[in-house]
Amino acid sequence: MSEQLKTELLVTFGHRLRHARREKSLSQRALGERVGLPQSHISKIEQGAVDLQFSSLAELARALDLELTLVPRAAVAALEGTIQAATGRNADPSASRARTILDEQAQLLADLESAFPATDKLSRYGQAIDELRQLHFDTPALKALQEAVEPSRKLARLLHSNDSRADIMKALDQATASLRALRNHRVHAPVLPSPRQRPAHRLEEDDD
Fold it and tell me: How many structural domains compose the chain?
């Protein structure tokens, strides 16, 4: 196998591993704890920088509740379509967009975990993301989510511009509070009853 092909395969696997991890609402650190690897090593695997042994690959699959199997190349497209249908992906555009936004938050968390030692602040941020993944997002909820992640976007800008740790931690608190506020609002929002249809005889009485 050429080095170029090997690199392409490792990068592709890394991307798919990241996607599978996010589908399970796991941070890199949480996945690492399941398989006995440090967060930094999981990060390198997802970047395609590690040539995995089969035993490590099998352990990662087990931790993510996945099966390793050999599939004919010609059947890959059909299999992926079946997986999407079985998991309900792409059924609701708002839900799909919300999932993408939460994936971005999970990636930001991974970047933070790479830059700073594990802290309670990072754990709370990860928990807020995980809790939002459990909710259903229709169009109004998606709009609320887009507004709620604005502090996270500020946090990302501070992190990537190498601002001070104090400023980043303050922004992290604000981002976590915003996500939790959305979660609490969605969970405790009253469910409005649908208007009942008036019986036909009542309509006739009103016409008198």
Answer: 2
Instruction: Give 130-183 pLDDT, tens digit per residue.
Output: 889 888 888 999 999 999 999 999 999 999 888 899 999 999 999 999 999 999
> Does residue 75 fall inside a structural domain?
no
The answer to whether position 126 is within a domain reads yes
User: What distance, in Å, lies between the first and last C-alpha atoms of the chain?
Assistant: 87
Could you read off the pLDDT of 39-74 as tens digits, one per residue?
Answer: 889 988 988 888 888 888 999 999 998 888 887 877
Q: Is the separation of the CB atoms in 151 and 171 below 8 Å?
A: yes
Measure the CA–CA gap between 40 and 56, rounded to whole angstroms: 15
Structural domain span for residue 15: 3-69
- Whole-model pTM? 0.57
CB 151 within 8 A of CB 160: no
Is residue 58 included in any domain, yes or no? Answer: yes
> Do residues 40 and 49 lie in contact, with contact meaning Cβ atoms separated by under 8 Å?
no
